[in-house]
Amino acid sequence: MIEIGLARSQSQTARADAAIAQAKSRIAEAESVATEAQSALARTRPLAEKGIVGQDVLDQRVSAAASADAALASARQGVAVAEADRALTLAERRELELRKAKAEIKAPTDGLILSRAARLGSVVSGASGSLFEIARDGQIELDAEVGETVLRRLAEGQAVTVTLAGGGEPVTGKIRLVSPMVDATTRLGRIRVALPASSELRTGSFARGVVETDRSTGVVVPRTAIIADADTAVVQVVRDGTIETREVTLGITTGSDAEILEGLEAGDQVVALAGTFVRDGDAVTAVALKSAEGEG
User: Fold this and answer.
1) What CA–CA distance (Å, rounded) separates 196 from 164?
2) This model's pTM is above 0.85
3) How far apart are CA 210 and CA 173, in angstroms?
4) Looking at 132-136, 183-187, 218-222, which range is the least confident one?
5) How many Cα atoms within 13 Å fall on the side-chain side of residue 249?
6) Class of domain 2-103
7) Residue 121 · residue 145 · CB < 8 Å
8) Of residues 110 and 294, which shows the higher confidence score?
9) What pLDDT sits at residue 249?
10) Spacing of C-alpha 125 from chain mean position
11) Tens of pLDDT along 17-76?
């Protein structure tokens, strides 16, 4: 309806412009007639005073001059009316353009539309909430939970390798935000990882990220090989076919492995499931642990 009103307003403005031009042409014509009538009256007055022309002729000249002046005034009034009509039309047009501007919804940035609450023809207000949810420039973030012991080793800008649910090629993002809070119940903190634009990403889907917080070269054993309490950590070593318990010093740990700083040497044979089946001094025959893929 606004577009129709604007088109009608443009047509009315054009007609008003034409009316103004026509009224101005009438002024020029009326001014010419009035000038001629005044000149004729000025020539007739001396002749009437000398009796060369009669009073009736003078009266005609006076009447003609008065009529010409009235026609000129009317023409000028016509211009004023036409200009007032044009001003009114322009005011109506500005109002329509303002309504149109308010009716147009413009996104503050380019991006990918994630959700749409707006419906064509619906009435919205400030209390209607967001009409669209947009990912700026198509960027999507990973909202991840991290254990409190790891959270303190994370910082903005660190690279994160993200694996999407269902497989596919991992994507590399960067930590954008590390939350200063830890949930009192779960003991988990949160981080936000900015991910590059990709057609593989879907909002709401599950993903897992890996961050390299430390790097070290040394002896590594499965965490299941370690028996630890608040003060010490020990492993069970097979030496000359006999179980021997050794106290060790731990370094970097992950969810599945732990670095041994002291207490083990490269090549030592370690019981993979410590404390489960054997005790210190038991005689055993060592068998290499096979990986999930069947490799030794």
Assistant:
1) 13
2) no
3) 10
4) 132-136
5) 4
6) mainly alpha
7) no
8) 110
9) 92
10) 20
11) 777 777 777 777 777 777 887 887 788 778 777 777 777 877 787 888 888 888 878 878
Q: Where in the chain is the domain with CATH 2.40.420.20?
A: 214-296
Q: Which amino acid is at 176?
A: R
DSSP character string of 151-195: HTT--TT-EEEEEETT----EEEEEEEEEEEE-TTT-EEEEEEEE
Q: Domain 214-296's class?
A: mainly beta
Residues 112, 133: Cα–Cα separation, whole Å: 8
Query: Which residues of the chain form CATH 1.10.287.620?
Result: 2-103
Give the three-class secondary structure for 48: helix
Task: Please report the pLDDT score of residue 174 as a whole number.
Answer: 93
The 10 Å Cβ neighbour count of residue 37 is 21
Domain boundaries for CATH 2.40.30.170 within the chain: 139-210
CA 13 to chain centre: 39
Question: Per the structure block, which two tokens stand in for 86?
Answer: 């044009």
What's the Rg (C-alpha) of the chain? 47
- For the chain, strand residue ranges (E) read 111-116, 132-136, 140-147, 159-164, 171-182, 188-195, 207-210, 219-222, 226-228, 233-239, 242-253, 257-262, 269-270
pLDDT digits (tens, 9 = 90+) for 138-160: 678 889 999 888 888 898 999 99
**End-to-end alpha-carbon separation of the chain, Å?**
77
Tokens representing residue 31 in the block: 């001014």
139-210 adopts what CATH topology?
Elongation Factor Tu (Ef-tu); domain 3 (2.40.30)
Between the alpha carbon of residue 159 and those of residues 61, 162, 231, 279, the distances in Å are 101, 10, 33, 43
